[in-house]
Automatic annotation (TrEMBL):
MF terms in GO: methyltransferase activity
Domain (Methyltransferase): residue spans on this chain: 45-138
PANTHER family: METHYLTRANSFERASE, UBIQUINONE BIOSYNTHESIS O-METHYLTRANSFERASE, MITOCHONDRIAL
Keywords associated with the record: Methyltransferase, S-adenosyl-L-methionine, Transferase
SUPFAM superfamilies: S-adenosyl-L-methionine-dependent methyltransferases (SSF53335)
Protein name: Class I SAM-dependent methyltransferase
Length: 200
């Protein structure tokens, strides 16, 4: 998967970075709710952060943000963007299935926009283990993912039942359709969802 993303960033073919207004509005609403329900912003982890747009938004809201991505080109661009915006974000080149101590710990919020749904079955279990290890009880995981299906070259997606099996230490408390207005037809047909999980 990283090889494909690395090639896409090198060629400048990154349609997932062009977020539509409806998507941005939904994400903003979720972040507003997270901040209202959980008190002051704390430590946040943006997995599969790409070139850092969501990490930068979180930092602008007052979160202490770490962004992790497996593509060095994307992380380099993220650092450049954050510097231009004047926000402090720790960006790391890393594997979300083996985060290790470099990523830190004690995260209260994890954001995943399109990372988990592209992983293999075994990678998904490793991801869940790592996310559980770096978060505190009561932490939130907000995930944007396509529904299940075989729609190459799109990721294979994920179903609610799989999330519940893969994250035994978490409660899946929201499963909402994503706003697809303005998205290309293949993305509209992928049944994109917003999942919200809380670590027990």
């Amino acid at each position: 998967m990283n090889l494909g993303y690395a090639l896409a960033y090198r060629l400048g073919i990154t349609p997932w970075e062009r977020a539509r207004p409806g998507f941005r509005a939904q994400l903003g609403t979720y972040l507003d709710h997270e901040e209202t329900g959980g008190g002051a912003p704390g430590r946040a982890l943006d997995v599969g952060c790409g070139t850092g747009d969501h990490s930068i938004e979180l930092a602008g809201r007052g979160w202490q943000v770490t962004g992790v991505d497996g593509v060095a080109t994307a992380v380099h661009r993220a650092k450049t963007k954050a510097a231009a915006e004047g926000v402090d974000v720790s960006f790391l080149v890393g594997d979300v299935t083996t985060l290790g101590p470099a990523a830190g710990s004690g995260f209260r919020f994890v954001l995943d926009v399109g990372c988990f749904h592209g992983l293999t079955a075994s990678q998904r279990h490793d991801y869940a283990r790592e996310i559980s290890a770096v978060t505190d009880p009561g932490a939130s995981l907000l995930m944007f993912a396509f529904g299940p299906g075989h729609r190459r070259p799109l990721p294979r997606g994920v179903a609610r039942a799989e999330l519940e099996r893969t994250f035994p230490d978490w409660t899946l408390d929201a499963d909402d359709p994503a706003d697809t207005a303005g998205m290309p037809r293949p993305l509209r047909n992928s049944n994109p969802r917003w999942f919200h999980l809380t670590r027990r």
